[in-house]
Design a protein that fits this description.
The structure is a single chain. The protein has helices at about 5-60, 65-70, 110-115, 155-205, 220-275, 280-310, 325-340, 360-375, 405-410, 420-425, 435-445, and strands at about 75-80, 85, 85-90, 95-100, 120-125, 130-140, 145-155, 320, 345-350, 350-355, 380-390, 390-400, 445-455, 455-465, 465-470, 475-480. It is α+β, with helices and mostly antiparallel strands. A six-stranded mixed β-sheet has the order 13-14-12-11-9-16, with helices on one face. Helix content is about 55%, strand content about 20%. The protein has eleven helices and 16 strands.
C-alpha cells in the first residue's frame, strides 16, 4: 500500500474510532445518569408510601397484616408530575395482600432476593417490550413482615438511548465522510514533497546529477529534502572528480604509450637494420649509439613510472639525516652530466639534521638538478642549498635557465606535462620528474614550490617538516663542484 493511502486510511480510521468511542461513552454516561435519577425517584415514591402507611399505623397500632393491607387500598399518592403511584403489599412468599392500583410485575423474584431488613430494586422487561424498575422495602408488623412494592416504567429511557445511537451513527457517517475528504487533501500535501524527492532520485539514477528539490518549512520532510540536496551536491562533486580522474588516467596512459612507442620504434628499427644487412663499422657504431640512447631513455621512463606507483604506499619511514652531507652526496652523483653540459654546481648547506627518507629525497634532488641542466643550453651556474627554517628544513635548487611562463607554472607538476614537448623529448624527458618530486614532498608532509622568471631562471624549493637541529653547531659548508 502506498504511503498516500496509508495516511488517508489512518486519519479516517483514527477519527472514526475516536469519535465512536467518545460518542458511545457519552450516550452511555447520559443513560446511566438518567437511570440513576429514575431509581432515586423510585425510592422516593417508596418512601412516601412507607410514610403514608406509617401514619395509618399510628392511628391504629394494632393493625394486623391483613387489616393494614385492606386499609392501604384507600391510600393515594400523587407525584409532582400528576402521576398516581400504584403500590402493592405482599407477604414473604410474594402473595399480594392488597394495595392501590395495578403493578404489572410480579413480586416473588424481588422479595425472595432481598437481604433481611433491606430494600432493593430490579429491572424487568415485559413481553410487550415495556421495561420497569421494580422496588420493594420490608415493613415489620407484629404478625409478620409485609413488603411494600412500587414500580416505575423506564421504557422511554431505552427508546431515547436507541434514538441517540441512531442519530449519532448518522452524524458519525457524515463526519467520517468530511474527514475523508479533508484527509485526501492533507495526505496529498504531505506526500507531495516525497513525490518530488522520488522523482529527483529517479532522474539522478538516470544520470542527471544536477537535480535538487525545493525545501519548504522546517519539519522532518523539509530536513530530508535539505539532506537530499546536500547528498546530491556531494555525489555530483565526487562524480565530477571521478570523471576528471578518469580523464587524467586516460591522458596518463596515452602519454605513456606515446613515450614508450618512440624509443621502441627506434630500437626495433636500428636492430632490424643491423640484422637484415651488412653494415660498416661506422654504421654499426652509430646504430648501437641510437639503440643505447633510446634504451637508456626507456629505462629512465620505466623507473620513474615505477616510483610513482610505489609511492602510493605512503608509509615510508623517515629518519634524521645530516643535510650538508646528504647534499654533497647528491652533488657528487650529478657532477659528471652537469660538467659535460658546461654547468658549474655550487653546494651551500647548514649543518643541521633533516627528517627524510634519503633514497626518495635523493630522487627529488636529482630530478630538480636534471631539470636545471635541461633548462641551461649555454652553461652557467646551479645552486644546491640547504637551510634550517621554522618547523623544519628547506632544500633549494636555483638555475640560470630559460625559466617557465607564469601560465604554465601551475601545471608543470602534473604527470607527463611538459612546457616544451619537442625539446624535452630530445633531451630524454618524459614529464614525470616534477610530478615525482611533488609526490615525494607530500609524502614527507612538506611541499614543493616553484618560482620562475622567463629568460632569468627557476628556483625550486622543497620544504620538509621536522628536523632543523644543528648537526655541527655554527658550521656552514660551501663547496663549488
Amino acid at each position: 500500500m502506498k504511503l498516500f493511502w496509508k495516511l488517508f486510511c489512518s486519519m479516517v480510521l483514527i477519527t472514526a474510532l475516536a469519535c465512536s468511542a467518545g460518542g458511545y461513552a457519552l450516550i452511555g454516561s447520559q443513560f446511566r445518569a438518567s437511570l440513576d435519577r429514575e431509581v432515586s425517584s423510585l425510592y422516593e415514591e417508596n418512601d412516601l408510601l412507607r410514610f403514608a402507611l406509617a401514619q395509618e399505623l399510628a392511628f391504629n397500632p394494632l393493625y394486623s397484616r391483613w387489616e393494614l393491607a385492606k386499609a392501604a387500598g384507600g391510600i393515594t399518592i400523587t407525584t409532582g408530575q400528576g402521576r398516581t403511584v400504584s403500590f402493592r403489599l405482599s407477604d414473604e412468599e410474594g402473595n399480594a395482600l392488597g394495595g392501590s392500583g395495578v403493578l404489572p410485575v410480579e413480586a416473588a423474584d424481588l422479595t425472595a432476593a432481598l437481604p433481611a431488613g433491606q430494600r432493593g430494586w430490579v429491572m424487568k422487561a415485559l413481553r410487550d417490550g415495556r421495561i420497569y424498575l421494580h422496588a420493594a422495602s420490608p415493613l415489620a408488623l407484629e404478625d409478620g413482615i409485609l413488603y411494600l412494592e412500587n414500580c416505575r416504567e423506564v421504557s422511554g429511557l431505552f427508546q431515547d438511548r436507541a434514538e441517540q445511537y441512531r442519530s449519532f451513527f448518522s452524524l458519525l457517517l457524515a463526519l467520517t465522510a468530511a474527514v475523508g475528504i479533508l484527509s485526501l487533501a492533507v495526505a496529498a500535501m504531505l506526500v507531495r514533497p516525497l513525490a518530488r524527492l522520488s522523482a529527483a532520485a529517479r532522474r539522478m539514477a538516470e544520470g542527471d546529477l544536477s537535480q535538487r528539490v525545493r525545501v519548504d518549512g522546517d519539519d522532518e520532510i523539509a530536513q530530508l529534502s535539505a539532506d537530499f540536496n546536500v547528498m546530491a551536491l556531494r555525489i555530483q562533486r565526487q562524480v565530477a572528480e571521478l570523471r576528471a580522474a578518469a580523464r587524467r588516467q586516460e591522458d596518463f596512459i596515452g602519454s605513456f604509450a606515446h613515450e614508450i612507442k618512440t624509443p621502441l620504434t627506434s630500437i626495433i628499427g636500428y636492430a632490424d637494420l643491423l640484422r637484415s644487412r651488412p653494415a660498416t663499422e661506422e654504421q654499426v657504431r652509430e646504430s648501437a649509439g641510437y639503440i643505447f640512447g633510446e634504451g637508456r631513455r626507456l629505462e629512465a621512463l620505466s623507473r620513474k613510472l615505477l616510483d610513482l606507483i610505489v609511492l602510493e604506499r605512503e608509509d615510508f619511514p623517515l629518519r634524521p639525516v645530516p643535510l650538508d652531507g646528504f647534499l654533497r652526496r647528491v652533488a657528487g652523483a650529478m657532477e659528471p652530466p652537469l660538467a659535460q653540459a658546461g654547468i658549474r654546481l655550487t653546494v651551500r648547506s647548514q649543518s643541521v639534521l633533516a627528517l627524510m627518507e634519503p633514497d626518495l629525497m635523493e630522487s627529488v634532488c636529482v630530478n630538480l638538478l636534471d631539470n636545471a641542466r635541461k633548462a641551461m643550453d649555454n652553461g652557467g651556474e646551479v645552486l644546491l642549498e640547504g637551510f634550517s627554517e621554522e618547523g623544519g628544513c628547506r632544500i633549494q635548487v636555483t638555475d640560470q635557465g630559460k625559466g617557465i611562463p607564469a601560465e604554465e607554472l601551475e601545471r608543470v607538476t602534473e604527470a607527463f606535462y611538459m612546457v616544451d614537448k619537442s625539446r624535452a623529448r630530445a633531451q630524454g624527458g618524459a614529464g614525470l620528474g616534477l610530478a615525482l618530486c611533488r609526490r615525494i614532498a607530500l609524502l614527507h608532509g612538506g611541499r614543493l614550490e616553484l618560482e620562475s622568471q622567463p629568460g632569468q631562471g627557476t628556483c625550486a624549493r622543497v620544504h620538509l617538516k621536522g628536523g632543523g637541529a644543528p648537526w655541527e653547531t655554527g658550521k656552514t659548508g660551501s663547496s663549488p663542484s
